[in-house]
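Encode chain A's predicted structure.
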Amino acid sequence: MVALLSQLYQLKQHKPAPKSNVCTVGQFTVGRASRLSQTLGGTGETPVLRNFCLAVGAIRESPLQRQSPRNRTRRSPSCPQQSPHRFPIGWRDSIIKKLEQHKPKLSLYRLMTKVTNINLKTPYLDLLRAELQLPQPENTAFLAIDLFAGCGGLALGFEAAGLRTVGYEMLPDACTSYRQNLHGNCQQTTLTTETDLGDRPEAIIGGPPCQPFSVGGQQRGLKDSRDGFPIFINAVDRYRPAIAIFENVRGMLFRNRAYFNEIVEALQNLGYKVDWQLLNAAHYGVPQRRERVFCVAHQGGWQWPNQIGGKPYTVGEALGELAQAAPPDSKFLTPSMDAYIKKYERASKCVRPRDLHLDAPARTVTCRNLSAATGDMLRIRLPDGRRRRLSVREGARLQSFPDWFEFAGNAESQCRQIGNAVPPLLAKAIALSVRKYLERIYGGDRDRQDARPTVGFDCRRSRNFFY
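Encoded structure for chain A:
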């Protein structure tokens, strides 16, 4: 390894590396870099070593050196070129320039430290601008019906992936936010099992009300009148889309697991295969440790999106200059609030204060901790020691809403919309997998009605499933 690092400076000049019992730069491919980074996974310097190994491997794969077709076809799944969020344009040149500034005989620690200090992550706001652009959808684009749509966090990700959306939501402010920011229309209505959803969609998506299963909602599950799953399952039964996806809180897999199993069985009885995973938004570019259950009803061949890898984005990277500012309308914590929070944290046995820390992702953003002055409220400690609550825009950034996305209604309504939303970056990762799945199902045939796959049989009389 030391010999390898000492030879890196020869890369730009294309000088042959001396013989050694370790691989040379010319032999250090992305695949080998990936395997080496996995081998080093047990060390305390894992993030630094991984970024360094992948960077060196990607330089080897760059146009600076000729590579054979054999090398091109053996690209590792963890290749940086497949993770554009972590390796922006020009990063190879930055590394090479950095290497040229140093002599070959540097210690492993010094060389690794100097090279890996180069920031390979795309700035967070640039990431949002690049990933959440909304191209005008084609008339033949796949249609996704978004039930319990809220302000459109899930739909934003799907439209950014090139799908058309139509939302259904009961709250007027959320519908207005959806309409003024997205291409699709949002119909303000209270959904029932008889609601007409219009055209037959290729996908039905949504987040049925999570209060029946959340800790804040007392996890009453099926006994809660806010339960929206009968409506969701009925819509899937009536319209038989090629794929159906719902999102909900992680509590579904624990205290309410029996009811979750009933939902899965109901979808299976409609002829679908059902997969689910507990996804952490921080693994998909969202600066927030938000865990949610995603359940997918499909006809076979579904693939979950890959995580982007690397260190997650932090609160500091997401908020930027906002984290150090104190706008005139800031809501500062009073001495009585500070005393209450101290008591709350002592009772909760918090080892580290629950202020937002700029060097780490945020905890889960909810309606309650964003809008209410509670012991668990989201708050930032300013350099002068004062603490203030998050603004609406800061909460939106932590949910990965771009700054151009405007929320309707008063501050409390906006906080509810943000806290209830699916983070758009995570939604887009799901949407890209949905689009790939639908393209495989329908092939090149753009006539939806003729190309639509037949979904199962009448499962009240048959237990056959489609594949």
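The chain has a mean pLDDT of 77.
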